[in-house]
Amino acid sequence: MSIKLNLLLATRPAFLTITLLGCLIGLALPSATKATFGINFLALSLALFAHGAANLLNDYFDHLNGSDQNNEDRITPFTGGSRFIQNQIFKPRQILLLGITLILLSAGLGLYLCSQTTWHLIPLGMIGIFIAWAYSAPPFELMSKGVLGELAISIAWSLVVIGFASIQINAIAYEAIPIGVAFGLIVSNILLVNQIPDIRADQLAHKLTLATQTTRNELARWYLTVIACSYALQMIGIHYFELPKAALITLLPLPIFLYCAKEVSAEISEKEKMKRLILNNLVAIHLYALLLFFGLLWV
Question: Best exposed site among 79, 210, 216, 243 by fewest CB in 10 Å?
Fold first, then answer.
């Protein structure tokens, strides 16, 4: 396998689809104007580079703290990192340098996009880059600070939607905030479920994720609270910001979310059952995002 392909695979491209959907949701939000194809392509590239960088940095710092190395309960490819360091495909320093390169590339693209649209996007970009680094890297290590990890994920993916919507109108799209935060919260449930198989390895590495600090029943309640808040924010967007009522088509995956919440509360020991829960959760969240995109287009 070529080194270029391996470098691409190290960013975990299969997991970048949720970021792509976030960009599409931001693009679909009703607005009087739309940015050019070139600007939107660069904005999409920025989002994907930043997500890829965050994945690489997570692999690097999880290697340093021993979480990935000692993870015997991982469910590949969903948990336990990309394994590119553990399988000696790349040295840790190479993963770190690629992550930093993508961070810098994202920052450069962000500055260019601001020059072509609005400089009001600078704070959003700075927060996004900060989270990409601080989620895994010391001294912040938000991934090891319980609910702060979920909060960071929620903010980061909210900014994907809000930032992309703002690029369309050359100003901060405040009307995108409810839908953006709803999407960000839903995405944080990917992290919440994927933490479960890694609990033992994370505890050994002193990586205190939300899953390591709560019971399974508490984790299920958190999962359901996130879902309820997301739908409530959609209602706010429809009522106060005149977003299309068709966006409520996102209620279709609700039975899958409820099923996943039930499974989260159960003490699942078999890897196949845990893998099925992770897949069901991923399908539900991607379906929610896709339906939200089409619902917003329905005007």
Answer: 216
How many other CB atoms sit within 10 Å of the CB of residue 168? 23
Question: Bridge partners of 209?
Answer: 146
pLDDT at 1: 60
Mean pLDDT of 131-145: 93
CB 197 within 8 A of CB 269: no
SS3 264: helix
Note the pTM of the prediction, 2 decimals.
0.95
Q: In sequence order, what are the beta bridge partners of 145? A: 208
Contact between 216 and 175 (Cβ < 8 Å):
no
223 CB-near residues (< 8 Å, 6+ apart): 189, 192, 193, 257, 260, 261, 264
Query: What are the structural domains, with CATH classification, of the chain?
Result: 16-297 (1.10.600)
Q: Using an 8 Å Cβ cutoff, are 164 and 22 in contact?
A: yes
CB 290 within 8 A of CB 188: no
Residue range 46-102, pLDDT digits in tens: 999 999 999 999 999 999 888 888 888 888 888 888 888 888 889 999 999 999 999
Q: Are 195 and 211 in contact (CB under 8 A)?
A: yes
Distance, CA of 85 to CA of 144 (rounded, Å) = 21
Nearest residue to 278 (alpha-carbon basis) of 10, 6, 14, 8: 14
Task: Give which of 107, 229, 123, 115 is closest to 179, Cα–Cα.
Answer: 229
**Which letter does DSSP use for residue 206 in this model?**
T
For the CA atoms of the chain, what is the radius of gyration?
A: 19
Is residue 30 within 8 A of residue 243, CB to CB? The reply is yes
For residues 68 and 85, the answer to whether their CB atoms sit within 8 Å is yes
What local confidence, expressed as pLDDT, does residue 299 receive? 63
Cβ neighbours around 249 below 10 Å, total: 17
